[in-house]
Specification:
Radius of gyration: 22 Å
Number of strands: 0
Mean pLDDT: 81
Structural class: mainly alpha
Shape: elongated
Number of helices: 5
Largest sheet: none
């Protein structure tokens, strides 16, 4: 009886996606680089203040951090797409693609909002 129960149990190695609550391994990979670009895009408003060049017009100042977040999220999406090719790195790449996609969507909404505010005066 005990041997039949042992045969019916599934091992963790048999599961196709690992354990249900497995940890995310973060290795030096494209997916990790994608998550890092998202983490760099979060404080973009603070670190764009350190740039030596600032726009002269007051209405162009919000566009500098928006442009920085746009570029970083595009780079993060490109890194995540490169990371999706490798089966060992897919989890981190999917998370990076999802995070950078959200950041890109927020940036596009921001650009649309700024455009709507300044054109509907």
């Amino acid at each position: 009886m005990a041997s039949s129960v042992a045969r019916r149990r599934r091992r963790r190695d048999d599961e196709p996606f690992g354990a249900e609550y497995s940890t995310i391994t973060v290795r030096p990979s494209w997916g990790t680089l994608s998550i890092v670009t998202f983490l760099l895009a979060i404080p973009a408003d603070a670190w764009t203040d350190w740039l030596p060049w600032q726009p002269e017009n007051y209405w162009q100042r919000p566009l500098v951090p928006v442009l920085a977040i746009f570029v970083l999220s595009l780079v993060g999406i490109a890194c995540a797409l490169l990371g999706l090719r490798n089966a060992d790195q897919r989890t981190a790449a999917r998370i990076g693609l999802w995070l950078n996609g959200i950041a890109l969507g927020v940036v596009l909404l921001t650009v649309f909002g700024i455009y709507a505010i300044f054109t509907l005066r």
